[in-house]
Amino acid sequence: MSILGSIKRKGERKKAHTFYHQMPKLKGDPREVRKLRSLMTARLTAFIDTTFIEGAKKTESFQDSQTPLSTLKLETETYKNVKTLGGIVCVYMPSKMANYFFELGSLYQRANLTINQVLELADESCVEISTSLCLDTPIHPLNFLRSESEEDDKASPKDGHESTDNQKTNGDSMP
Questions:
Q1: Exposure string (b/e) for 126-157, b if CB count within 10 Å is 16 or more?
Q2: pTM score of the predicted model
Q3: For residue 48, which of 80, 123, 141, 161 is within the disulfide window of CB 3.0 to 4.6 Å?
């Protein structure tokens, strides 16, 4: 079974690699091309999220074991199995980009970057990826951090003052 599993995994990886590299050159029915590019956007979003979390978790385990962080290897696999609506799919991303998102997760876990810094850096990289692959829709990774960031923004007023909306509705406003 391990030989068959290895052959199957190799075939899935080759398919994922080909799918990634064919994106900029897609031709044919515009509807089908748009569908495939949208599919790639969703898969890359899942890949990036998984890689970011992997980097954070690996850093956390290093911190918990009190192993020096200098021994932490900031590298990840270029192929990942990600959950999609259709099941688990193998997705490819070049090692440079995969390692970048892994490192972002690690830096965030070590509190070297804030949520906003992580989101900004991730968005910049995703624009590059989207452009290079000619994707129709942008990649929006790390939505779990975005919702956390939005909750923090709502919980604490931006300028330290309460909203003036309450004063208007309570009839406390000056004429």
A1: beebbeebebeeebebbeebbeebeeeeeeee
A2: 0.81
A3: 141
